[in-house]
Write a structure and sequence with these properties.
Shape: elongated
Order of helices and strands: HHHHH
Number of helices: 5
Number of strands: 0
Helix content: over 70%
Number of domains: 1
Strand content: under 5%
Largest sheet: none
Structural class: mainly alpha
Length: about 90
């Protein structure tokens, strides 16, 4: 791979990573809205899957990475720590 090819690949990766960062942010935002009852979980996940495919995130990062982003966001939103009274 030439220096020019490496630089072009680096540009591709930088944009793909920026997209992934925003995708992650939106997943967390929708997960919080789901916890508040504003958005249905299935609808949010379905739309996020559509977004991942439409913006080539699945192709760029792989299905497993996209699944991990969704799992992380929605598992954290569903987490309810025990209250101090129960834990004591």
């Amino acid at each position: 791979m030439t220096g020019a090819e490496r630089e072009l690949l680096e540009a591709w990766r930088a944009v793909a990573n920026a997209k992934l960062s925003e995708y992650r942010r939106q997943a967390w935002r929708l997960a919080v809205l789901m916890k508040q009852g504003t958005v249905d979980k299935a609808a949010a996940i379905d739309r996020l899957r559509e977004i991942a495919v439409a913006h080539a995130l699945v192709r760029a990062h792989g299905e497993e990475r996209i699944q991990a982003v969704l799992a992380e966001a929605f598992a954290a939103a569903a987490f309810r720590p025990m209250s101090a009274e129960v834990a004591a």
